[in-house]
Every structure is written in structure tokens, then in C-alpha cells.
Amino acid sequence: MRQKFGRWFIPVAGGLAFIYLLVPIAYIFVFSFNDAGRTNLEWRGFTLDNWKNPCGAPNVCESLVNSLQIGVVATIFATVLGTCVALGLVRYKFKFRNTADLLIILPLATPEVVLGASLLAQFLNLGWELGFSTIVISHIIFCMSFVVVTVRARVSSLDPRLEEAASDLYASPITTFWKVTFPLLLPGIVAAALLSFAMSFDDFIITNFNSGNFSTFPKFIYVSATRGIPAQANVIGSAMFILALVVVVTSQVIAYRRRKALAAR
Amino acid sequence: MTSTVERSRRRKNRGPQDLRSEEELVAERRKGRVGLYLIIPGMAVLALFFAAPVMVLLGMSLYARPPGAEIGEFVPALEFGNYATVVGAYWEVFLRSFLFALIATVAALLIGYPMAYLVAVRLRGRQLMQGILLVLLIAPFFSSFILRTQAWKQILSDEGPVVTVLRAIAILPADGHLTATAFAVVCGLTYNFLPFMMLPIYANLDRLDTNLLEASGDLYASPLTTFFKVTLPLSMPGVFAGTLLTFIPAAGDYVNAALLGNNRDTAMIGQIIDSRFFKVVDYPGASALSFILMVLILALVMIYIKRFGTKELF
Questions:
Q1: What is the distance in angstroms between the Cα of A131 and the nearest Cα belonging to chain B?
Q2: What is the pLDDT of residues B131-184, one digit of tens each?
């Protein structure tokens, strides 16, 4: 009896949790087909118009493009800086190591309002005009800490003997890095970069503090929430979700096939 | 970085006894300098745009408003009274924020743990299935959490399906609501930070040795006993990281409270900070509130780490 309980409890509870996670996505998807007019609050009939014309509502696509640009730039900076820091922290010993550690962890332990508010205070103080650059900087800060934490786990689990073997075979340190270390770290770095991009793309609170009049996709939705979110936002939200799903699932399937092929050999 | 090559050449020429030679120590030190070069750019960015801003925030929280000044005009001062003022006005909101965050964290743990266990242990070896479920966890980020929170607002609205059903089966009184209640805010928080709870637990359970579970079963432990005596204690580092990654952003969040709550008895501290900054233009008050929030959370995190912490936190 107990055995049985344990057997079905986990799949049912886990399955329900995944459904809970996807309910609002399903709602967003369904209402992207709503013949909504100005406010997309109640169902008024099925239409494909929103999908045919995703940029139909004012500022939807502009804010999406802004968000994508910010995400890409912030991710590149955060990934490069964060990977270097992770390598440095794991592989080398130096003074101020603990201070460096603390400086990495603290942004993760700081709520977004505080990060946003403090950066705003700094930009006001410096007389820096709020916009693209201030948003990118704020995103680099919180993404970088995540990159360091993710990549650091990967560097720590790397077998140093592999690198020693390379240098024993007279590879220069730079060759060793690019031919041995980097390929081994790459999955971790890619995962960190994807996570950075996702968090940057979806960030609202820090962005809202440091954006001035510049609009991003989450900010656009938040601002329009008071007078009704256009159905086009649902189209873009659904499309981005499906795109992310397709890209990652495809790469998973390819990796899975390759593993199977290798195992069959 | 040349040290590795030099070391290996030396090893060949002189044999293993000379490994800790004078040159080796110098090489070690040089090694250290490369490390410094690696971390300096990242650290500089953090110093300039994290550490310094927090100091600026601290400074600004002590600014004073000269008599007869215009809105948004402040002068540098050491006005500690700002803190007393905002604490007096908003201590209840602080308490509520931490309470909501705590409930949401516990709820996310109860929901996230079975999810993580399902993917990491039950589906072990079925990589494709695992991959797809993990993607489903991350992909919602791309559909924007504000859009999803707004979707919840409409699903839970008075005309929505949930309220209609709950009213029909009399769980909710005929004039009962779900939106604009504390319940909705906590649900939203739980929902939005669930991935941050689930992923660290998953990463931990993924390394769990299932032979231990079998061994426990062989020794006649019931599955529940096995869970509480073996699985759960082993997965504590994941639970620990997950609860922190959920509680901290939840305590400072204001989107859920703004979209799903009302302005009276569900306000969270993030909302107050935001409106002090942008609507009231009371920079010192907003800065003081932010600083208090930061210190309170750091203090809570420290106590939590001391009490339950493991070394390998992040």
C-alpha cells in the first residue's frame, strides 16, 4: 500500500507542478488568437489577425527589438567577464580572494529593487542619462554573478590532469586553453549564457529603475497592463516561448541521437 | 601561464625531487598574477556598478530636505531621522513582505521538490524526457513573467474559470474574490520563483546515488523513512540554495503585489520603494528603505547559513 503510494505520488505531484507552470502560457497562447480589439480581457472570437500582424500594436516590436539587443549585449559581456572571473577564482591563489568571492555572491543576495535603486542613485549622481547603456550595465551586474557561479562549478569539476597532459605534450598554455580547457568548459559556458539571456530578456524591476523613457518588452507589458495589453504581446510571448522550446529541444534531440549512435557503435 | 610548460620541462630534466625549487615558487606567484588579470575586469565592473552604488545609496539615505525646497531637491547631510521615519511608517509592510516571501518559499519547496525528484531520479537515464522537462522550466522566461502574472490575474479574476467553479461548489462565497487578495499575491510569488527553487534541487538530486535508496529499502526502511532519512538529508544543499534563491527575490518583488494585490493590505516593500522613488520623489526615504531591506535580508541569510548552511552553497 505504502509502496504504491510512493510510486504514483511523485509522478502525479511532479506532473501537476509542471501543468501549474504551463497554465498561464496556455492562457497567453489561446488569447493570442483572440479577436480582442483594444483590451484583451475577454474572449471575443477566434482570429489569426494578431499572428499575421504581430507588430500591429504600437511599440510592441520596438520594445521587443530593444529587449533582444539588450539581452545579447549584456549576455556577451556578462559571459566573458564572468567566465574569466570563474577561471581566476578557481585556478589561482591571490590576496583579496575572499573579498572577490563576497563581491560575486552579494548581488545574488540583494533583491532586485535594491540593485535597481542603488544603480539609479549612482547614475543620478554621475549625471548619466538613463537609456540603453544604463540598462545594459545593470543587466551585466546581475547576469555576471550567475555566470560566475555556473561556470565555477564546471571549472571545479574539471580534471587538471587533462591540462597537464596537454602541456606535457608541449602544447603552449594558450593552445592548451583553447584546445583542452575551453572545449571542456563550453557546455557550462553555453548554459550560463542562455540563462543570462533569459534573465536579461525577462527582467523588469531593475530595468524599470534604470531605463528612463527607454522601453523593453517586459516594461511595455507592465505599462500597458493598466489600459489593456494588446493581443500582439500574447503573440510575441507565445512565439518566443515556442522558439526557445524548439531551439533547445532540437539541440537535445541531436545530442540524444549522437549519444545513441556512439553507444550503438 | 608559461609555468606549466616550464614545470613539465623541469620535471623531465631534473626529476621529481626538485619540484618545489625557487623558480617554481616564483612561477607560482606569476601564476597568481595571471589570476588577478583574469578577475580584475569583472571585479572592476562589480566595484563600480555594485559596491559603489550601494555606498551612494547609503549616502543618499541620509540626505536632508531643506525647508522650502522643491520636490526632488535634497542636500547631502547626515539625517539619521530618515530611518526612524520610514521604519515607523512601513514596519508592517516589511513584516508582510517577509511573511509572504516565507510562505511562497515553503509552497515552492513543496511543489518544486517532487518536480525535481521526478526529473532527476524517476526519469534518470531517460535523457530526452529529462531535457524536455527542463526546457519547459526555462522556456517560460521567454514569454515574459509580467505577461504570465497578468495571465494569472485574468485566470483568477471574478469572471474567470477558477472563481466561477469555486463559487459554484461553495468553497468561495458568492461575493468572494481571488484577485486583489493576499492569497493571489502569494500564489503569484510561488509561481514566479518556482524555477529558482526547482533547479538547484534538481542539480543536487541528479548526483544522488540511487544505490543508497535501494540499500535503505533492503534494510526494511519504508519509502517514507528512506526519503526522510536518506534522500532529504543528502539533498539539503540543493534545498538550501533553492530556498535562498526563492526567498530573496520574493521578499523584494513588487510586480506580483502590484498586479495581483490591492493597495491596502497586500502592499509589499518593493512597491513602496518604487513609489517613493518615482511617484513621491523622496530619494532619501526610498534609499533608506532599500538599505534596510538589504541589511535585513543579509542578516536573515547569515542566520540561515549559520543555522542550516553547508560549505558548498553556490
A1: 15
A2: 888 888 888 888 888 999 988 888 888 777 788 788 878 777 777 777 788 899
Confirm if A98 and A106 have CB atoms less than 8 A apart: no
CB neighbourhood size of A142 (10 A): 22
Substitution target in A102, A118, A157, A238 with the highest count of B β-carbons within 10 Å is: A118
**Distances from the Cα of B32 to the Cα of A84, A153, A241, angstroms:** 14, 20, 44
Predicted confidence (pLDDT) per residue in B21-78, tens digit: 444 444 444 455 777 788 889 999 999 999 999 999 999 899 888 777 777 778 888 8
Is the Cβ pair B277, A209 closer than 8 Å? yes
Distance from CA of B234 to the nearest CA of A (A): 18
Cα torsion at B37, B39, B41, B42 (round to 10°)? 170
CATH number of this structure's domain B81-308, picked from the four choices 1.10.3720.10, 1.10.10.10, 2.60.40.1120, 1.20.1250.20: 1.10.3720.10
| ipTM, interface predicted TM-score of the complex | 0.86
Adjacent-strand bridge partners of B144: none
B interface test, pick of A2, A8, A21, A205 with most B CB neighbours within 10 Å: A21
Q: What is the C-alpha to C-alpha distance for residues A173 and A187, in angstroms, rounded to an integer? A: 21
Does domain A58-229 fall under CATH 2.40.10.120? My reply is no
CA distance A223 to A207: 13
Q: Which residue has the cell 559556458?
A: A189
Residues B55/A122, Cβ–Cβ less than 8 Å:
no
Domain ranges of chain B: 3-60, 81-308
What's the pTM? Answer: 0.86
Number of H helices, E strands in chain A: 12, 0
Q: Which of B239, B248, B271, B245 is nearest to B101 (CA)?
A: B248
Asked if residue B259 lies in contact with residue B274, where contact means CB atoms within 8 angstroms, the answer is no
Side chain identity at residue B108, one-letter code: A
Nearest-5° Cα angle at B266, B263 to B271 = 65
